[in-house]
Design a protein that fits this description.
heterodimer; A: alpha/beta; Rossmann fold; six-stranded mixed β-sheet; four-stranded antiparallel β-sheet; 10 helices; 10 strands; about 25% strand; globular; B: mainly alpha; 12 helices
Chain lengths: ~250, ~260
C-alpha cells in the first residue's frame, strides 16, 4: 500500500533523510520510531506530498506521490505534528471544509461528519471554536480531519502527544478499529503504544533506517525499549556520549 | 470550480468572523466620510465665493471635478495602505498555523487555492468600495453629477484595489511572517503608485514606459471618465501576472 524507495531529502547541505526504504502492506499499522530530529517528520511530509524528495520514490496505493500526486493525495489522511486547525472556525465548520477539499461528494458529508464526531468523541464540542479548545480536543479534531474522507492511507505524526491517559487509550482503541480498513503510519515516542497497536516497526536514526521488522520478531526475549536504544546507540554512539557529557557539564 | 468556491467561503468566513473585516470597513468608511465631508464643504465655499463675484461663474464648478475626482484619489491612497493589511494573512498565516500542510496535502490544485483566495479578497474589496457608494448617492439626491464619469471612476478604483490585492497576495505567499508580507506588499503597491513620478524628466524612451507602468496614470484617466482598453489591459495584466507568480510561488514548494 505504501512503498518508500531510497528516499533522500536534503535541505541545502543538511541531509535530513538518506536512502530510506520501507513498505507497509494494506491494512497494516506501522510504528515509525526514531529520536527527535531523526527525520520522521520529513519522511512523513514527503509521503503525504507536502514536499518533494531530493531523490527516491514514494508510492501510495499504487500512485506515485510526485508524478501522480493528485490521485495519491486523494487517498491520504494526514495529521501533522501540530493539528492544522483554523482557529476561527467551529469544529463542525472546519470538518465540513476539510471534507469538501478532500473531494467528498456533498451528499456524503453529513453522515461522515456524524461518524467522525462520534468516533473521535467530539460531539460535545461540535459547535465550539477550535481556537478555544484544549490540547487534547485539538488533537482529536486533527485526527477527525485526517479520517473524515475515509482514506486508504493514514499518516499520523505523534497523534497522542498532549493527551491524558484516558484519551490516549481512546485514540489507541480507535487506531485498532481503523486497522484493517486503513493502512496507517504512526509516529510516536511512546513505545508501549507501538507494542499494543502496531504490527510492524521501522526505526530511523540520523535519517537512515536502522530497523525494519515485524513486532513479534523484535520483541522475542527483549522489550522494544532495548531494541530501540540498541538500534540508535549502534548508529551514532559518538553523539550520545557527547550529549551525556553535555548533561554532566550542565549538572555541575 | 467547486474547490475554488469552498476556499472562497472559508476565506470570507475568516474575514467576517474575526474583527478584521469590521475594523477595516469601519476605518475605511470613517476616512472616506471625512474626505467627503471636507470636499463638500470646500465645494460649498467656492460656490459662495464664485456667486458673489461674477454672474454665472458658478456654472464652471461641477461636482465631478471638485468632489468626486478628489474623493476617488483620496480613497485610492487609503486603499494602497489598507490592502496589504487585508492580504498579509492570506498565505503567511496558513504557513505559521500549519494549515498550509492541510491545503497542500489535500487533492487541490495550486491554481484553485490561489484563485479562491484572490476571489475572496476581490469580493471583500467590492463590499468595501461598494459601501462608499453612499457618497455619490447623496450627491445625486442634492445635485446632478455626471453618472458615467462617476461609474468610470468607481471601476478604476475597483481595478486599482484588485490589482493591489493581487500584489499583496503575492508577497504574502513568499513568507510566513505577516509583517514582512504587509510591508513588502505596501512597498510594492506604493512603488506602482509612484513609479510615474520621474516620467517628465526621464527622457523620451523611459518616460512613457514609466508612465505606462504607473497605476496612478491609468487610474487618473478612468477618474476623468475615460475608460480606455489600454487602462483595462494594464490592470488586468497586473492582476494576471501577480496571480501567475503567486501560483508559481505556492507550487515552488513541490519543486525538487
Amino acid at each position: 500500500m505504501i512503498e518508500v524507495q531510497n528516499l533522500t531529502k536534503r535541505y541545502g547541505d543538511l541531509t535530513a533523510v538518506s536512502e530510506v526504504s520501507f513498505r507497509v502492506e494494506s491494512g497494516q499499522i506501522l510504528g515509525f520510531l526514531g529520536p527527535n530530529g531523526s527525520g520522521k517528520t520529513t519522511t512523513m511530509r514527503v509521503i503525504t506530498g507536502f514536499m518533494p524528495a531530493t531523490a527516491g520514490t514514494v508510492k501510495v496505493a499504487g500512485f506515485d506521490i510526485f508524478d501522480d500526486s493528485f490521485e495519491a493525495r486523494k487517498r491520504i489522511g494526514y495529521l501533522p505534528e501540530s493539528p492544522p486547525l483554523y482557529n476561527d472556525m467551529t469544529v463542525t465548520a472546519y470538518l465540513r471544509f476539510v471534507a469538501r477539499i478532500k473531494g467528498m461528494p456533498r451528499a456524503a458529508i453529513p453522515d461522515a461528519l456524524d461518524r467522525v464526531l462520534n468516533r473521535c468523541g467530539l460531539t460535545d464540542v461540535a459547535d465550539r471554536v477550535t481556537g478555544y479548545l484544549s490540547k487534547g480536543y485539538r488533537q482529536r479534531v486533527g485526527l477527525a480531519q485526517a479520517i473524515i474522507h475515509n482514506p486508504d492511507v493514514l499518516v499520523l505524526d505523534e497523534p497522542t502527544v498532549g493527551l491524558d491517559p484516558q484519551q490516549i487509550i481512546g485514540i489507541r482503541n480507535l487506531m485498532k478499529e481503523l486497522a484493517g480498513e486503513h493502512t496507517v503510519i504512526l509516529s510516536t515516542h511512546i513505545l508501549p503504544e507501538v507494542v499494543q497497536v502496531c504490527e510492524k516497526v521501522v526505526i530511523i536514526n540520523a535519517g537512515r533506517v536502522v530497523v525494519e521488522d515485524m513486532i513479534e520478531n523484535l520483541t522475542q526475549g527483549q522489550t522494544l525499549e532495548d531494541v530501540f536504544l540498541r538500534a540508535i546507540a549502534q548508529e551514532d554512539s559518538g553523539e550520545i556520549v557527547e550529549s551525556a557529557a553535555v548533561v554532566e557539564e550542565a549538572v555541575k | 470550480m467547486r474547490n475554488v468556491l469552498t476556499i472562497i467561503r472559508k476565506e470570507l468566513h475568516s474575514y467576517f468572523v474575526s474583527p478584521v473585516a469590521y475594523v477595516v470597513l469601519t476605518g475605511f468608511l470613517l476616512l472616506g466620510g471625512w474626505f467627503f465631508f471636507n470636499l463638500l464643504s470646500q465645494f460649498n465655499l467656492y460656490l459662495n465665493i464664485y456667486t458673489q463675484f461674477q454672474q454665472g461663474a458658478a456654472d464652471q464648478l461641477n461636482l465631478n471635478d471638485f468632489v468626486i475626482s478628489p474623493l476617488m484619489h483620496n480613497l485610492s491612497i487609503v486603499l494602497v495602505i489598507l490592502i496589504p493589511m487585508i492580504t498579509m494573512r492570506a498565505y503567511a498565516e496558513e504557513k505559521k498555523d500549519g494549515t498550509y500542510e492541510l491545503l497542500l496535502t489535500s487533492p487541490l490544485r495550486t491554481g484553485e487555492i490561489v484563485l479562491g483566495k484572490f476571489f475572496a479578497c476581490f469580493l471583500f474589496i467590492c463590499i468595501m468600495i461598494g459601501m462608499t457608494g453612499v457618497y455619490p448617492l447623496i450627491l445625486m439626491v442634492f445635485g446632478n453629477p455626471e453618472i458615467g464619469v462617476m461609474l468610470a471612476g468607481y471601476l478604476g478604483l475597483l481595478l486599482l484595489a484588485t490589482a493591489f490585492a493581487a500584489v499583496g497576495l503575492l508577497t504574502s505567499s513568499f513568507t510566513e511572517n505577516q509583517i514582512i508580507a504587509a510591508v513588502s506588499g505596501l512597498v510594492a503597491t506604493l512603488l506602482l503608485y509612484m513609479i510615474g513620478w520621474p516620467a517628465n524628466t526621464a527622457g523620451d524612451i523611459l518616460g512613457p514606459v514609466l508612465r505606462y507602468l504607473s497605476a496612478t496614470e491609468h487610474f487618473a484617466e478612468m477618474v476623468k471618465g475615460v475608460v480606455d482598453t489600454r487602462n483595462l489591459v494594464y490592470f488586468m495584466s497586473l492582476i494576471v501576472l501577480s496571480l501567475f507568480l503567486t501560483q508559481r510561488s505556492v507550487e515552488s514548494l513541490r519543486w525538487r
